[in-house]
Amino acid sequence: MLEDGYLRVARPAGVEVRLHWSVAVGALLSARLRLEPVLWLGFLGVLLTHELGHALAVKSIGASLVGIDFSGVGGSCRWRGSNGLVERAWVAWGGVLAQAVLLGVVLLLCVGLGAGTGPLGAQLRYSFLEVNLAVLAINLLPMAPLDGALAWRLFAALRANDRTLRGTLLGAIWRWARRRRERRSGQGNAEAGHAAADPTSPTGSGPARDAASGPGAALDTPYDRTRGGDHQHAEGYSQATTGDDVEEDGSLGSPEPSAEAQRELDALLRRMRERAERGRGGR
After folding, report:
1. What angle do CA 223, 226, 227 make, to 5 degrees?
2. In the chain, what are the domain boundaries?
3. pTM of the model
4. What is the pLDDT of residues 176-208, one digit of tens each?
């Protein structure tokens, strides 16, 4: 049953996945209106890469993914949480950046390693290079509901807040690493609680059993505490408006990192430079 032109096909991990009827049109056009199942699958692979890029961008700002909609020119991503212009523009870039990564990997395989020979390889190369590049270029057009309507506004938004793209990305990477460390720490505490609650464990008797906190006791970071309603990102166009729905500590464009964060970033950059110098010295 179609709803607004979409067919609901799955709901993995609570994320609603829908297909728009224009996906079939896009697949036919990518195959030059011919019966070419491999080209159709290649086109779907490009769309999947695009939407995975949006989903990863949503996760990177600490928001909760609600739904993914596929359409003939890419699709849309729905999430709950951060609602600032910088966050929405970053999510808009997620899809085309994922396509750019796919483009680079396929070029490396074809040019550097000589892959993509034979009829099947030629069809996949056409899908992941030419069709991929066409979908990427269309999505960067500065008009709604394409990604370009929001993506190109990212740089002006950063300048307006006296922030740089490099500092913002490094801050996002540091916050992502911090969330991972906190989650691992929380899981370790939960496992220790389970071990204490096990009657067969040497330490599982007495008050220790009552102190078991269970799997839900993982640390609750500010990125996990989102509030507000669902927000629609339709190829760079968001129906959400800025306002009180921005997270208190989980935005991509947060102010300059703290002294502790800066020290960790400096240490990370120093280790990367040392590895690069050792690599050059080994040649």
Report:
1. 160
2. 6-160
3. 0.61
4. 677 778 878 877 666 656 555 544 443 333 333
